Automatic annotation (TrEMBL):
Tagged with keyword Zinc: no
Gene Ontology biological process terms from the UniProt entry: pyrimidine nucleobase catabolic process
Residue ranges constituting the Flavin reductase like domain according to the UniProt record: 10-150
Keywords: Oxidoreductase
Source species: Oceanobacillus piezotolerans
GO molecular function, one term: FMN binding
Domain of life of the source: Bacteria
Protein name: Flavin reductase
Length: 162
């Protein structure tokens, strides 16, 4: 099967947009990623997947920690900056969660230390043990079929049935 056909099929799955951050020798590094998932509740584990040639791969291996920042619908520009699609003149400000750098106002900030890693195909899967979480109000930034999207707001939402 052709690579493009496979990529298009995988791109049909709508995902949230995250920025993965870490800090090495006092320098903060980040990259936009949508290969993230919750792995386990007990213990609290998450998984991220990074391509073998990604600059962040080496940084996470060096630091042994990372944060997942789930972006809000208002943070599309940040997604583009950390994806290397847009350059900005100003310095990006970070907050800290459990001593790890996070994106201010992200919908969710998940601090982790690397529990294990697995090389599969051309990616490394990092399993992170969650050390802290912070939540904010707002709506998520969505990515599907190569485009940013937002959730449609319903005028008359139907109440959940128990």
């Amino acid at each position: 099967m052709e690579d493009r056909k496979f990529r298009n099929a995988m791109g049909s799955f709508a995902t949230g947009v995250t920025v993965i951050t870490t800090e090495v020798d006092g320098n903060i590094h980040g990259m936009t990623a949508n290969a993230f998932m919750s792995q386990s509740l007990i213990p609290k584990l998450v998984a991220i997947s990074l391509k073998e040639d990604a600059h962040m791969l080496k940084k996470i291996k060096q630091s042994g920690q990372f944060c997942i920042n789930v972006l809000s619908e208002d943070q599309q520009d940040l997604s583009k900056v950390f994806a290397g699609q847009v350059k900005i003149d100003s310095e990006i400000q970070f907050d800290y969660l459990d001593g790890k750098p996070v994106i201010p106002d992200a919908l969710a900030q998940v601090a982790c230390h690397v529990k294990s890693e697995y090389i599969e195909g051309d990616h490394t899967l990092f399993i992170g043990e969650v050390t802290d979480v912070n939540l904010e109000d707002g709506e998520p930034l969505i990515f599907s079929k190569g485009k940013y999207r937002t959730l449609e707001k319903l005028e008359n939402p139907v109440a959940a049935v128990n």
